Amino acid sequence: MPTDQDSWPTLDELEREEIELELPGLSETDAYGLGMLAVTAASEQRLPVSVGVWRGGRQLFHCGLPGSTLDNDGWLRRKGRVVMRFEHSSLYMARLCHDKQVTLTERYGLPASRYAAAGGAVPLRVRGTGVVGWVGVSGLPQLDDHRFVVDVLRKLPR
Questions:
Q1: What is the pairing mode between strands 58-64 and 121-126?
Q2: DSSP readout, 50-116?
Q3: What's phi and psi for 52, nearest 5 deg?
Q4: Beta bridge partners of 58
Q5: Angle at 57 between CA 60 and CA 20, to 5 degrees
Q6: Are the C-beta atoms of residues 131 and 100 closer than 8 Å to each other?
Q7: Is 56 left (phi over 0), alpha (psi -120 to 50) or beta?
């Protein structure tokens, strides 16, 4: 029986997308600019999301917009842990688990209370360095969360 996830991008498409979104760098100022770009876009669309930008283990930006909740902040962190663990978007890992018909807990032994294979967090890959952090939103359906982040990242200069 088909599911909504069957219409998601494939793993190959998601991997190409991640490569396309590679950045020249990620300073604190860059993270602030990225976060504000996301907040502005979300505010214009009146989206009830939490926005976060992390480099390594350090949160460089956070904003909870009207209508978002503490629960969104928790989902955001759980999705971000997936990005840092696997160096792929949280949607990539959701698709991988869907395709293999397993959960992160079943396949990797990761507790669902700390890791969420659900779309909305995207790796911040720096040219010549690799994944240094992640940007994410939480508050929409997971595919919409992912698409929103990708659209914001596409607006950045390369």
A1: unpaired
A2: EEEEEETTEEEEEEE-TT--HHHHHHHHHHHHHHHHHSS-HHHHHHHHHHHT--HHHHH---TTT--
A3: -145, 145
A4: 55
A5: 70
A6: no
A7: left
Number of C-beta neighbours around residue 46 at 10 A = 9
Phi (first) and psi of residue 2, to 5 degrees: -65, 150
For 57-98, the pLDDT digits (tens) are: 999 999 999 999 999 999 999 999 999 999 999 999 999 999
In the structure encoding, which two tokens stand for residue 70, read together?
A: 């503490």
The encoded tokens of residue 48 equal 């009830």
- Residues β-bridged to residue 136: 52, 121
Domains observed in the chain: 4-154 (3.30.450.150)
pLDDT digits (tens, 9 = 90+) for 26-56: 999 999 999 999 999 999 999 999 999 999 9
Q: What amino acid occupies position 11?
A: L
Among 78, 89, 158, 77, smallest CA distance to 123 is for 89
Ordered DSSP codes for 43-69? HHHT---EEEEEETTEEEEEEE-TT--
pTM over 0.85: yes
Q: Which two tokens stand for residue 57?
A: 């283990």
Cα gap 80→90, rounded to integer Å: 7
